[in-house]
C-alpha cells in the first residue's frame, strides 16, 4: 500500500489535530502494514526509524487516532486489540488458524442487515453500524 505523507498530514489537519512526527509515523505504519496490526506490530515497525519512541506514547497516539475517527479498533477472540486504517464500514474475515484478518466488503450484506434490523426495531436501542466478524479458516492455512 503506497502511503503519502502529504495525505496523512491532510487527515490530521481536517480533524484539527496537531501534526506531530509521532502521530504521522504511527498512522503511516498502520496504512503500510495494512493488515490490522497490533500495537506491538506498530511499535516494531516504527522502531527502526524512531528508536526512542516510548510504548506509552504509541498507545496514547493510537487512542487519539481512534477518538478522532482516523482508525478503528478491531477486537479479536484472543482479546488482543488490533487497529484498522479503513474507517468505512466493512466486515472482517478472521482466520482462527493464522490470525489473519482480511477485509470483507459486501454491500448486499450491508443492505440485508440494515433492512433486517429496521424491521426488528430493537426496543430502546439505536444501531449506529453493524460490523461482522466472520470466523473461519482460509484454505491455505
Ligand atoms: Zn478492516
UniProtKB/TrEMBL annotation:
GO terms for biological process: negative regulation of DNA-templated transcription; regulation of secondary metabolite biosynthetic process. InterPro entries: FUR (IPR002481), Fur_C (IPR043135), WH-like_DNA-bd_sf (IPR036388), WH_DNA-bd_sf (IPR036390). Gene3D superfamilies: 3.30.1490.190, Winged helix-like DNA-binding domain superfamily/Winged helix DNA-binding domain. The keyword Transcription applies. Keywords: DNA-binding, Metal-binding, Repressor, Transcription, Transcription regulation, Zinc. GO terms for molecular function: DNA-binding transcription factor activity; transcription cis-regulatory region binding; zinc ion binding. Binds 1 zinc ion per subunit. The keyword Metal-binding applies. Its cofactor is Zn(2+). Zn(2+) binds at residues 95, 98, 141. Belongs to the Fur family. This is Fur family peroxide stress response transcriptional regulator. It comes from Breznakibacter xylanolyticus.
Amino acid at each position: 500500500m503506497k502511503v503519502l505523507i502529504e495525505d496523512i498530514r491532510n487527515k490530521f489537519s481536517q480533524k484539527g489535530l496537531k501534526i506531530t512526527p509521532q502521530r504521522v509515523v504511527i498512522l503511516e505504519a498502520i496504512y503500510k502494514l495494512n493488515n490490522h496490526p497490533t500495537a506491538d506490530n506498530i511499535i516494531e515497525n516504527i522502531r527502526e526509524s524512531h528508536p526512542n519512541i516510548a510504548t506509552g506514547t504509541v498507545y496514547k497516539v493510537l487512542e487519539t487516532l481512534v477518538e478522532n475517527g482516523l482508525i478503528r479498533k478491531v477486537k479479536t477472540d484472543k482479546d488482543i486489540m488490533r487497529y484498522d486504517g479503513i474507517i468505512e464500514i466493512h466486515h472482517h474475515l478472521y482466520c482462527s488458524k493464522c490470525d489473519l484478518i482480511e477485509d470483507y466488503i459486501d454491500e448486499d450484506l450491508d443492505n440485508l442487515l440494515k433492512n433486517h434490523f429496521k424491521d426488528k426495531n430493537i426496543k430502546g436501542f439505536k444501531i449506529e453500524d453493524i460490523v461482522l466478524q466472520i470466523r473461519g479458516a482460509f484454505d491455505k492455512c
